[in-house]
Design goal:
single chain; 5-stranded parallel sheet; 9 helices; 5 strands
Amino acid sequence: MISHAAVHPDQAAARLSAYTVIDVRTPGEYAAGHLPGAHNIPLGHLATALPALKAAAARGELLMVCASGSRSATACERLAAADVPATTLTGGTTAWTAQGHPVERAVNTGPGKNSRTGKDFGAKAVWPMERQVRLAAGSLVVAGLAVGTRYRRARWLSAAIGGGLVFSALTDTCGLAALLARLPHNQPRATDLDATLVALGR
């Protein structure tokens, strides 16, 4: 099994044209702002995309990108297990934009249409995963406390969520995000994913 490399935003920006950029976030996160020229393949669909990614890697370097660098590092590890070399963007799009590098966003000119590509970006309205996690975790904590006023055992739900958030911070993982990513509104449309795979496989 091969290992994967990491590159900082300034280094990646200096040779962006040499990379095939793969954004492994949800379609909503991708539509809200992504590296120029990036292709969207959510982390949960990486196995399906493996043949196309192998073909793309044979032509040049793959740069895996997410919001913070955690999901892209996971993607690189999975690709490495399949002997596909890939590099992760350290700090993800958060670090990329913080250092002043440009991103592309969906610009609607009609019902869900992108003025640059003509593609439908209905997923634009989907919140970024980090915001979804905050809403879900906060709602569960409040629910646990509210129900706990009548059923004391319900307070353990709030404690469990708090403990989960601490564990998430210490390990730089997020089980709640993984669960939320499986919800229908976080999934790419089959036609969009198929088009991406065809483009990568050429």
